[in-house]
Amino acid sequence: MATPIFPFPATSYALTSAGAAAHRIGGNFRDAASGAVREVENPRHGAAMGSVAWGDAADVEAAVAAARAAFPGWRDTPPKARAQILHRWRVLLEAHTDELAWLASHENGKIVSEARASVEKGIECLEFAVAVPNAQNGGVMEVSRGISCEVRQEPLGVVAGVVPFNFPAMVPMWMVPLALAAGNAFILKPSEKVPFTALRMAQLAEEAGLPAGVLQVVQGGQPVVEALCDHPEIRALAFVGSTRVAKLVYSRTTALGKRCLALGGAKNHLVVVPDADPEMTATNVVASSMGSAGQRCMAASVMVAVGDVQHIVDLTVAKARAIRMGEDIGTIIDAEAVTRIERFIEDAVQRGAKLLLDGRGQRPDGSGGYWVGPTILDDVTADMPAGCDEIFGPVLSIIRARTLDQAIAIENDNAYGNAAAIYTSNGGTAEYAIARFSAGMCGVNIGVPVPREPFAFGGWNDSRIGHGDITGADGYRFWSQARKVTTKWALQKDATWMS
């Protein structure tokens, strides 16, 4: 049996082995039923840091069987007792934050401060889940003399989630805590590019007292995703990834009568008007577009420059140029992604865009791995691929607009609707734009308008396939079903139509 090296021993960026990312099924590490494995690379070094079990439908079947066995006991555990176990999980995650941050950094390539922040955000999602069963109780009301109605949120059963490579710790925590708090048994499929962090977090959940089989990890690629979509005993599935795959997953899952919420890609716009604060705006735009090497659905990959804001553009370029490779910005996930990003840059230049800052070929001295430095393109048009498609890299495209209405129209014409922001010193201008953006998450002078708990994360249009949001109260309702109970114990003398 091949197993991971936990606790993960790294305390620096030096290449460190993590062993083998096996499945976690029924409280045990397991190899793939087929015995197949794939290599896992550390993107900073472009070298192997371990392997991952390459699962298929047989492994999903084993996980479902273990979840089926564990579900009744977890369902019947009182909500407050479930919350105590989740709280102990939170304590363990806090105690292991540094380990998890270095683990996420090694398998994803992000700098460790960004990895640590993503672990902390995941813990915040767990904190919300600990309390949400109490908050979501529908309560009891006497609706007529002697008759009461109540709503009970109850679990669905065995549920699953498929998560991407860009946030190995945070995105699983959008799903898992709320699903467990509702009383479900959960099967998690991490990205095969970053299989270790989610596996370690699941192991810590069991250390906290979570019964074996309630949270399981099945490793692999497309065959595992398809098996999760198709399995008749999996009642609901959540997905985060590209819009193309999100639509495929949603169609495949809902065609079988299951619940599905699939979050897709994004092309977020930051609208900058002349009265914007230059220092705050430039700092925010660079942080949003270049943070996590642009590999996040909340990255602001388009600045819509309204009117005379050249001084802000110049300051933005200067701040982006000062970013230190390997210290302020991490790597791209793999060689294929580097090629795709560079293709976007070259295409934009060929179509007439001006290259204000070129990050191609930039890397720390003596470093291997997969790198693209901060890149800024000016005079991009909304119909260029760099202006309308998701690049998923540290590339900022500047589109020029004469008026605020034209800028809003540019944002609204894009197929995505994840996030949009306005940079201004005028409250009226801000409210005018926010009311007209076609985006689910909006910001005023904030480049990454991610809502904090209890407010929910979720976009509109092609950024979200399905109904509701994945965190907050919507997330809890997605993983639960409402049982409505109407009760009468005695015949009343003043009977009405209801009694």
Topology at a glance:
Elements: E1 19-21, E2 23-25, E3 28-30, E4 37-42, E5 47-53, H1 57-76, H2 79-95, H3 97-108, H4 112-135, E6 140-144, E7 147-155, E8 158-162, H5 170-181, E9 185-189, H6 196-207, E10 215-217, H7 222-230, E11 234-240, H8 243-254, E12 259-263, E13 269-272, H9 278-290, E14 302-306, H10 310-321, H11 335-350, E15 354-357, E16 375-378, H12 385-388, E17 395-401, H13 404-413, E18 416-417, E19 419-423, H14 427-434, E20 441-444, E21 460-461, E22 464-465, H15 472-478, E23 480-488
Parallel strand pairs: 1-5, 8-9, 8-11, 9-10, 11-12, 13-14, 13-19, 14-17, 16-17, 19-20
Antiparallel strand pairs: 2-3, 4-5, 6-7, 7-23, 12-22, 15-16, 18-21
Helix pairs in contact: 1-7, 2-4, 2-6, 3-4, 3-6, 4-5, 9-10
Protein model, in words:
- The strands form six sheets. The protein has a seven-stranded mixed sheet, sandwiched between helices. Strands 10-9-8-11-12-22 form a six-stranded mixed sheet, sandwiched between helices.
- The protein folds into two domains: 19-264 and 463-483, Aldehyde Dehydrogenase, Chain A, domain 1; 269-444, Aldehyde Dehydrogenase, Chain A, domain 2, CATH 3.40.309.
- It is of the alpha/beta class and 499 residues long.
- The chain has helices at 57-76, 79-95, 97-108, 112-135, 170-181, 196-207, 222-230, 243-254, 278-290, 310-321, 335-350, 385-388, 404-413, 427-434, 472-478, and strands at 19-21, 23-25, 28-30, 37-42, 47-53, 140-144, 147-155, 158-162, 185-189, 215-217, 234-240, 259-263, 269-272, 302-306, 354-357, 375-378, 395-401, 416-417, 419-423, 441-444, 460-461, 464-465, 480-488.
- Helix content is 38%, strand content 22%.
- The mean pLDDT is 96.
- The protein is built from 15 helices and 23 strands.
- The protein is globular and about 75 Å long.
- The termini are far apart.
